[in-house]
Specification:
mainly alpha
Amino acid sequence: MMGNIIRTNIVLGVRSYVYPIYILIGLAYGLMLMMFPERYLPTLVPIFILFEPGLVGFMFVGTEIFAEKKDGAIGALSVTPIDWRGYIAAKTLIMSLLSVIGAVLIMAVGTRSLEGISYVITGAFLVSVVYTLLGIGISAKYHDLDDYFVPIMGVLIVSLLPFAHYHGYLRGEIWKVLYLIPSYPGIYFFTAPFEEVSTNALMWSAVALLLWAGVAYYIAKIRFYRYAVEGLR
């Protein structure tokens, strides 16, 4: 059953050009990074990688949800034997794998190196799982991109704040609350190819992202069933 759901999602994603465009964005980011001097890459590459698995994925999964609502594919989940939880899992897995491909393209093209790529792959996958699930849960209530625009901008702004704190631009004890944002643990994975990051920091970052994945799945499960499958407003 899961295999059928995954194949169907891939066919729909390719046919609607969502998945090819998603990968092309990763390539475009890599080409953009080639224009910057090498000394800027340790700062810019992590930001670009976060955009690919996290923020772009958050937007694209919402776009897919809207399209499948209009096609009646999601509404059919309430009257077919297809498990809507399997639908969420399949969508998350596909988007996360696409994010890994995009992140590898950013590294390979933008830095002309794959040194430390294992950190990037791990971080991209975990961050994408979190943001895809959040995207499914939040977008389930909306019906088009215009309504979804405000949540996208809110997530974008909040998710970029940890970079300002990480690089010392936001000082003071109050800003330590930014550690709770899921993009923060992702920073450690994305900067590991460029600077020394302790194993302990990477381990706790993975734990934080796994905890966030659990929270995001709970949000997605509740809201997707209520607003997308049942069609409540």
